[in-house]
# Entry
Amino acid sequence: MNTTTTLVIMAAGIGSRYGAGIKQLAGVGPKGQIIMDYSVHDAIEAGFDQILFIIRKDIEEEFSEVIGRRIEAICHEHNVSVAYAFQKIDDLPGKYKKPEGRTKPWGTGKAVLSCQSLVEGPFAVINADDYYGKEAFKKVYRFLHELPEDSRDTYCMAGFVLKNTLSEHGQVTRGVCRVDEEDNLLAIHETHDIGWNEDHVPCTKDQILDPQSHVSMNMWGFTQEFMDYLEEGFEGFLSKLLGKGEGDPMRDEFLIPVFVQKLLKRKCVNVKVLETNDSWFGVTYQEDRDSVEEAFAKLTEDGMYTEDLFDDLS
# Structure
């Protein structure tokens, strides 16, 4: 497939659980590298041709200062282009207007729609504040790069093992997956308030969870045609929320995992789960930062990364 393969990084999150500061820009590497640096490094190494950041206008200056200009220079050295899209809460289609008083963004689905005009081929989507590991980037890139041109409704998802994705400092939300023997995603259930119980087993308030379950960490691989589904889905979401008054107009979100689940139920797409045994980590809570710094120090010590990140890329 001779088209651009893009990595879309969703970096517009408010980061309310993290507290003060913009969590995506917190230095965690041995020389102050941020988590996005490692994602960009792993994407370049895997073969992605374009890095596309989704940000908000109000963090544009700080984002450019901390990462934008520096990453642009690094990407240029490796023939990788960089683009930006802006997530705007009042940018709604057709007759719809933002409800007065709403400050919450519309969710990951709408965030990805903001870069619709900038994506010209298959693309992957990740969160800015999550570390996914090299294996996941390589598998997702290979899947997208080798996908036949007539497989427009075939997508992929990096399937992490639940026990490798939890925080020691609070509860998290994960998309818990049901997968068949051929690694097809059958269902994804957004599960809230997952933590460890006293026996160090993953659980919610109501149930014990299989620690080996596959979960989505919002690392997806899509064909360009997925944007058409998203556009249609977001209008349907707004029709119910603002047109019919179903739901909470101040807080409801259009989320990628929830929307993919709807597409699966309609049987109009197929999603392959690409298992990765790498440990996910990220700065969900302020208290996570020390352990994340230790993890990156260990990865560097073990030779997974050079201390001066990007020096190992040819």
